């Protein structure tokens, strides 16, 4: 089990390295709750971005509302910059089916028409159900569908990845 | 008859008929969800696709432009299709019963009914009658309940005061006839407000209201002392005709909210009113338009709260 | 037809009998209790093993809905329901359409009831023309036509001068006046008992004072006119206390309680169950408990069903719009037994409340099983459980708060004037 565990902080460092040449003073970062927001906050600081950080919940755009209802405790989305004509990088912790990213993009487009949208993910774990890809990735791996890869943050702010059994709805 | 008709067999909220009987957890979830919808209203595209393809029928047996409009806006912002039916008294005089009307509309694939009716309990009758999967939202039934108003009032209080467990709240006016007051009392006590007061003349306070967990005051000065939240209720003109009150002038003198009376409350007390206001009857214009009044924000919050209610119900 | 009812437990509260005795019937009357009269040859023997044999029940208030309200119920359906409930005599209030304010209408009703060959029907005549509360009816003529007393049903009689004169006129002839105590002004618009439940539910309410003020008025007018009054459907603790004191004073007052009010109170309205919309309204817990005690100690004379069949359309509407009333003929027995069991009373005391005691209110020699009495008999299985379902009720009125409930007690066989009118 241990050899499959990845070091989140190490992957984050790798991601920062990949993004450094890809951003400029007008690039906007948008984190997807909850893990994506933690990552985006770290990236935003590390890349010294000037455009304020955006956060997206995407609960209201998910495609499984008819099956599982409203996700408990949706958090307020906050896009404190003009989306129109902007180059945006979406940040999520684990890229799996691609549906969360699809929902996040639909929500983003309700704010305006970006110039481009790219995706940065800490881990791409495969299992795509939609044609979605991450341009910047910390690590690529394959996980069986009954395992959940989750990002956690401890009291000191350090990020950690864990694998738990998962019963999908 | 004993199972809570608001919950489906999984214990999830499937109708919103009254705040009475809802757990504090459900109430807080609605308020938290509403918070997300407030930010939607501040965007360019004020819509989310949650209820796309769903039909929401506004069944208003009692006319109300204000409430109906906010429900319509809320449903449309959830991308639902909205149909407004102002039935009034004409349908019943045509002989079609309430349940027949509901059956006909259900056959037109209604997913949700928003119902306002002059009779207490009407939404319960409808909720018992519709097939599972159709949701009923009570937009006000007789004197019994107006749960979305109660919820948006709680949202407003939370927005300005944060901690319910430290507050003293006074509800002033015609509690006897007020469905809003009853919903507010249930919500306040459920959320742990330690001191809820009702203030009014004996003719306007119903028998046994203390059993709902409130303290009764007939003296407005005493009732307002050190209060954090002042909620003024609307006084209908009919009350003067039914020998409940002499005149609007005397009512204003004894129970109207003026700057002087407001000064008896805490200096940072907020003033609320479910609307529409009768200026000069229950509330002075200076207070209604003053710095402590949060009456206009109440309206904005109302749309977000109704969006929250509809999206929670439709998802269950 | 000569009938022997054997092996049953005979309970005759009026004569203090509770023993295993056979009953012998001939020519519509009881001819033997315990021992057969000489030469008695039964044409039919009814085996009442494990059953109670008692006087058929006397229901002081049952609406048959004829004439005029046949869409709610008919004589035929309701009389079948009555005998299925073990009821051999019933009084019907005058609020038919048209009201029973003319001798011709009363004669026709009596005639139709007799042709149905089921329970005895004792009509109550209207106290005023059209129940309008203004002009007196021909009380003497109506009594000749068959009215046993005069009533104002649930219609308000607000003009106290008219009420006073009506009582005085009735007192002239010794006629009894039956009044439901409700002050029309205080009750105006109300649909539920004024208390914490109605407050919580936001229902317009009827204060207890609506009943107590009316009772006070009635008692005072009794003192000044000398009229005999039967107070119908007392519902409050204070009201009962006032009647108890009046009886002690020696006033010729009697009263009854609706069987539903012995069991239900305002909390039972639940989530606005229109079947609990009754008149008088179901009052508070303390009122209900006072009624239960008062029936036991005699302050209340009798139980009645207050049978009021209401069509579905008039009940499947919001609570405040529903027509008040509950179907009751088939529930009178089990609900009476339930009250008695809970109050730890004997079967004889229980049955007295629906046999000898209502007979005494009416001044009839019915409700008892002595030799020479009419053979109005109920054979009852006090252990039979049955479920209250629409299909199980013979009455056209399916409006009952007890829908879906299990009841204990059923009339297995009912005889009126020595004829078997019901067998299950």
What labels describe this entry?
heterotrimer; A: 169 residues; alpha/beta; five-stranded parallel sheet; 4 helices; 23% helix; C: 424 residues; eight-stranded parallel sheet; six-stranded mixed sheet; 23% strand
How would you describe the overall organization of this protein?
The complex is a heterotrimer of chains A (169), B (316) and C (424). Chain A is of the alpha/beta class and 169 residues long. In chain A, 23% of the residues lie in helices and 27% in strands. The longest helix of chain A has 12 residues, at 8-19. The mean pLDDT of chain A is 90. Chain B has a five-stranded parallel β-sheet with strand order 7-6-5-8-9. Chain B has helices at 24-41, 65-77, 90-93, 98-106, 122-129, 147-161, 179-190, 220-224, 238-241, 248-255, 259-262, 285-288, 295-315, and strands at residues 55-60, 81-86, 112-117, 135-141, 168-172, 195-199, 215-217, 229-232, 270-272. By secondary structure, chain B is α/β, with parallel strands linked by helices. In chain B, strand 1, helix 2 (65-77) and strand 2 (81-86) form a beta-alpha-beta unit. In chain C, the strands form four sheets. Chain C has an eight-stranded parallel β-sheet, with helices on both faces. Chain C has a six-stranded mixed β-sheet with strand order 3-2-7-18-19-20. A four-stranded mixed β-sheet of chain C has the order 5-4-1-6, with no helix packed on it. The longest helix of chain C is centred in the middle third of the chain and has 17 residues, at 209-225. Chain C is globular. The model of chain C has no long low-confidence stretch (mean pLDDT 96). Chains in contact: A-B, B-C. The B-C interface holds B 1-2, 5, 20, 97-99, 117, 119-122, 124-125, 128, 141-145, 179, 182, 206-209, 211-212 and C 194-205, 207, 270-274, 313, 316-321.
